[in-house]
TrEMBL record:
Family of this protein: Belongs to the acyl-CoA dehydrogenase family.
GO terms under biological process: fatty acid beta-oxidation
Location of the Acyl-CoA oxidase/dehydrogenase middle domain: 133-226
GO molecular function: acyl-CoA dehydrogenase activity; flavin adenine dinucleotide binding
Keyword Calcium: no
Record Gene3D superfamilies: Acyl-CoA dehydrogenase/oxidase, N-terminal domain (1.10.540.10), Butyryl-CoA Dehydrogenase, subunit A, domain 2 (2.40.110.10), Butyryl-CoA Dehydrogenase, subunit A, domain 3 (1.20.140.10)
InterPro entries assigned: ACX4-like (IPR045008), Acyl-CoA_DH_CS (IPR006089), Acyl-CoA_Oxase/DH_mid-dom (IPR006091), Acyl-CoA_Oxase/DH_mid-dom_sf (IPR046373), AcylCo_DH-like_C (IPR036250), AcylCo_DH/oxidase_C (IPR009075), AcylCoA_DH/ox_N (IPR013786), AcylCoA_DH/ox_N_sf (IPR037069)
Pfam families: Acyl-CoA_dh_1 (PF00441), Acyl-CoA_dh_M (PF02770), Acyl-CoA_dh_N (PF02771)
Source organism (scientific name): Mycetocola lacteus
Domain Acyl-CoA dehydrogenase/oxidase N-terminal: 20-129
Protein name according to UniProt: Acyl-CoA dehydrogenase
Amino acid sequence: MTFQPLDSDFYGFSTTLEPHEQEALTTVRSFLADHVADRVTDLWETAEFPHDLIRPLMATGVGTWAWEETRPRENSAVFRGFLALELSRVDASISTFLGVTEGLAMGSIGVCGSAAQRAEWLPRLASGEIVGAFGLTEPLSGSDSARGLTTTATRDGDHWVLNGQKRWIGNATFSDITIIWAKDTADNQVKGFIVPTDTPGYVATKIERKTSLRIVQNADITLTNVRIPESLKLENANSFADTAQVLRLTRAGVAWSSVGVAIGAYEAALEYARERIQFGKPIAAHQMIQDLLAKCLANITASIALCVRVSEMHDADAQRDEHSALAKSFCTSRMRETVAWSREILGGNGIVLDYRVARFFADAEALYSYEGTREMNTLIVGRAITGKAAFV
């Protein structure tokens, strides 16, 4: 199957990918079109996760590309960004599922794990044999996670005992392992732990009544004297600076995903505009509609350009926190504009799930907030610009 750039990739950034990367994108795009696209609206409405798709989705290779223990061939961060884009333009929840298990869980082990931990856990996560989650946010600690974590880890011989609560943890109602970040009671430093979810004292409860990313199974987690062996402490996760290394990678991934959400809404609006007849012609032939479509495409194009560059910087080992923070802040803001303009094109039909835009419109709100709010990310950029930290 020949690779075709998306029409919404207006400047053809994806044409610079290696042939094997384009082939992989084509495989994923075909799988999503054949097995996911027709199901997600119903799943979104009922807030159900398609567990039967986990193994087939992972079999396309989406989880294998980042780490040497699992990747079939050399690849670029730009390519991995386009993977996130392809997933999100079909459904942000499916992309978030992968972002949690492959980006955050595998990322934590890949960045902070020992060689033995990487060899044991990364292939199992990449294949879909097991599912991962990432437990950082707490009921009273989100933006201030660097200082405000209350979950504790206490060394007891050759084990650690974890106590505390986590909130908004994606995949956590069905994950096999969750990466738990907790403060060591001995030195007050943040440490990371691989916690099997069948460990006594670990309880995950689904968060109900969401209006965004309804397919994602977010949970509240309670940890009560959860006892795990030293072998499950991430060997190289010994301060929040180590946690930040993981977030630097995944913030750029959220930027890419937000472009995919914008594209999904834009493509649905364009399709509708070509078919909807008003005043004797398709509304796509009206000046005001073309203006909105052009503004959507400009947002998408600018965001892809920024994402490509920040991913190139990752490959060159030149990406810093402020680079991924700017990408996340800018792209999610432009996404928010784009899904609103796309909904506007549909008029009243824009709030009906059957036309797809409403789902992207609602899901955009979650991407706008998670992995660091716009304000927190701009403060990271502001610190780099001025040399002064403005955090509380």
